[in-house]
Amino acid sequence: MSLLSPPLEAFLAVAQHKTVHGAASSLHMTQTAITQRIRTLETKLKTTLFVRTRRGMVLTQEGEALIRYCHAAKSLEGETLATIQGAATQSDIEISIAGPTSIMKSRIIPGCLSVLKKFTQLNIRFDIDDIENRHQKLKMGHVDFAVIQPEHLAREMAVKQLKSEQYILVCTSAWKKRKLRDIIASEHIIDFDPSDRLTHHYLKMYDLYDIAYHARHFVNRTESLAMMVIEGLGYTTLAKEFAKPYIADGSLIALNHSKTYHHSYLLAWYARPEPPRYFSAIINAID
Questions:
Q1: Among 97, 154, 104, CA closest to 125
Q2: How confident is the model at residue 89 (pLDDT cuts 50, 70, 90)?
């Protein structure tokens, strides 16, 4: 059972499947019926919600705002239906949180365990994502919370300042007899993708950037990145907590006397006038 209106259900389906055909199949309706509902909604709101592209139906800025409303409304359904139908019946509630590997493993998942035990109808999807586009997932309504960098903060987002992550420069233990400047001047940097500038920021902070060999390998999983470093394919920056077991087992060593770079993160979400108790509990549990 859904408390959303039929036009909004059609809108959500098109946003999820990217095509009218996919939305029609998921709702067991004709494509014509889906199109009519979207047009009715656009007429009522006096705006355009989608644009057609080669990649399918893409949300406009107004569509992004509406989908956030729909996801907020859907997340309230579980508690609302439980209240209406009585305490004996509880509907599942789905919440998703996107964040980088280090913070997810060390703080977010452990912090949310008590929330999951308290709110047994709550289902959380932990979206481990090391690419710094998590603010886009939040904007598009793909997640309810996202760990983002301060420069990605949008004016309408609500935020909580998280403890900064400490990053260290690491390389394979096979290079333990090599000098720092030799490694930086001749070896590849290994990063997540071309937009990942964390290692560059570290090098600049310690006046090492100008001597560095700037060729880079890319891999968008922290575990795979660590494996490439262990195999001697380059060096990188890793969160100190994440790197700790690799250093302890001797597969990695910390460079530059273990000096750290502090990287700021925010927990971001879109504010709700009356957030449900589990929503506030999640915010309070993450530091």
A1: 97
A2: very low
